[in-house]
Amino acid sequence: MARKETAADAANPGRLKQIALTYKMTRRADKKIGLVLAAVGIVTFGVFLAIGFLIGHPIYLGILGFLLAFLATAIVFGRRAERVAFGQMEGQPGAAAAVLDNIGRGWTTTPAVAMNRNQDVVHRAVGKAGIVLVAEGNPNRVKSLLAAEKKRMNRIVADVPVHDIIVGTGEGQVELKKLRATMVKLPRVLTGPQVTATNDRLRALGDLMSNMPLPKGPMPKGVKLPKGGPKMR
């Protein structure tokens, strides 16, 4: 019991330090974050406290307002910190894979299912919306990668809807910071068992990059595919 308490006490400073570090990093790019968080907290607490006085329960509503103000502040802080992080990752090879890894429950992601020697890459995510192919790189080149990957998958998952997204800031593309929101908004057409079956079929198909060790997150620039490796499609 004492060991568990000691471990928890040791973990708390680490979490607080991480939050402080995240705040400092976010503040470098978002100078107004302190004012925004303070405004969110004060306004939320003030509204509930005022309601409490109006209905004759200021203590109860005050406590509730404090808790909700803390929650609202945490949510706003998380979103703004995420936006800054995505802004820093924008344009880096493999950045979309990092976003897909943190998209949330219900999605199974496989990074780099297709790639060429110019480091244009296609990632795959499977969820209740079907299969989503997310490409990053030169828009003209990734279109051929997407078409080849769709053709490859069509042999075993022709009955599953496939969406394709090109990450970028150009016309018809999706900005990195909006990638998660775009995928979450896709209509859900598959059931849980259908998602599992789709993943199993795709796993049996194999991935183009399955034999190549790739680091998680953004890939370093200048990485070249080894000769004699998987054949590009």
Characterise the protein shown here.
- With about 230 residues, this protein is α+β, with helices and mostly antiparallel strands.
- About 55% of the residues lie in helices and about 10% in strands.
- The chain is built from seven helices and four strands; from the N terminus they run ααααβββαβαα.
- The longest helix is centred in the N-terminal third of the chain and has 32 residues, at about 60-90.
- It is elongated and about 65 Å long.
- Pfam families: DUF4191.
- This is DUF4191 domain-containing protein.
**Strand tally:** 4
Round the Cα radius of gyration to an integer and report it.
Answer: 23 Å
The helix content, as a percent range, equals: 40-55%
- The number of helical segments is 7
Strand portion, in percent?
A: 5-15%
Instruction: Give unreliable regions as ranges.
Output: 1-11, 211-216, 223-233
Structural class: alpha+beta
The geometry reads as: elongated
Secondary-structure element pattern, one letter each = HHHHEEEHEHH
Largest sheet: 4 strands, mixed
- The separation of the N and C termini measures 57 Å
On the 0 to 100 scale, the average pLDDT is 80
Strand neighbour order, sheet with most strands: 1-2-3-4
Task: Reconstruct the topology from this structure.
Blueprint: H1 2-29, H2 33-55, H3 58-89, H4 95-101, E1 108-115, E2 121-127, E3 130-136, H5 139-153, E4 162-167, H6 176-184, H7 192-205
Parallel strand pairs: 3-4
Antiparallel strand pairs: 1-2, 2-3
Helix pairs in contact: 1-3, 2-3
